[in-house]
Amino acid sequence: MTMKIKLNDIATFKALMSESSKLYEEAQRVLVGGVNSPVRAAIRPYPFFVREGRGPYLFTVDGQRLIDYVLGYGPLILGHAPEQVIKRIIEYIYRGWLYGAPTEVEVALAKKIVGHFPSIRKVRFVNSGGEAVATAIRLARGYTKRRKILKFEGCYHGAVDYVLVKAGSAAAHFGAHHLPAFLRMWLS
User: Fold this and answer.
1) Could you tell me the strand order of the sheet in which 57-60 lies?
2) pLDDT of 52-102, one tens digit each?
3) Into which CATH architecture does domain 10-80 fall?
């Protein structure tokens, strides 16, 4: 059964997400802000907790099935847990998963990306969006010899000190749109 609920209908949300409420209370004792991202902390009255994802759906600890419109902010374009991806991951897990050294497969992936985009000559793989932003800033500053960067006010560009000034996302929601306030939020 699929129900349509509005996230701003607090009474319905609380009735449907009571297990999430309990987990959120527990999480606040051991996680900064009760979650691992300020974006997740912005959900009111509390975030829902996910048990699993399949295809385009999230299944909460409360037994609710939700359409996942976020899909990991982009990387889950195939949805959650597609069989062909699971098979490839398992194949590579048996080889080990963190070497701290280059691999043949990363060269093959880089060649595939460069081959599909004529304007791209080389790529750099990173582990997170924040690392990508920090690398882009470092590259731009090195190439242009300029110290200042252009950043869109009110937009989230990752959890990198240089771009947390007047950040968007949940940072502004909590009044932590500049670095000192952001640090106070983390230290409280």
Assistant:
1) 50-54, 57-60, 65-67
2) 999 999 999 999 999 999 888 778 999 999 999 999 999 999 999 889 899
3) Alpha-Beta Complex (3.90)
SS3 34: helix
Question: Where do the structural domains in the chain lie, given as residue ranges?
Answer: 10-80, 104-187
Which position has the token pair 């691992």?
Answer: 36
What is the C-alpha R_g of the chain?
20
Answer whether 77's CB lies under 8 Å from 66's CB.
no
Average pLDDT over residues 97-113: 94
Q: Which residues pair with 52 in a beta bridge?
A: 59
Find out whether 38 and 171 touch, Cβ atoms under 8 Å. Answer: yes
What's the sign of the alpha-carbon dihedral 43, 46, 52, 57?
negative
DSSP letter, residue 52: E
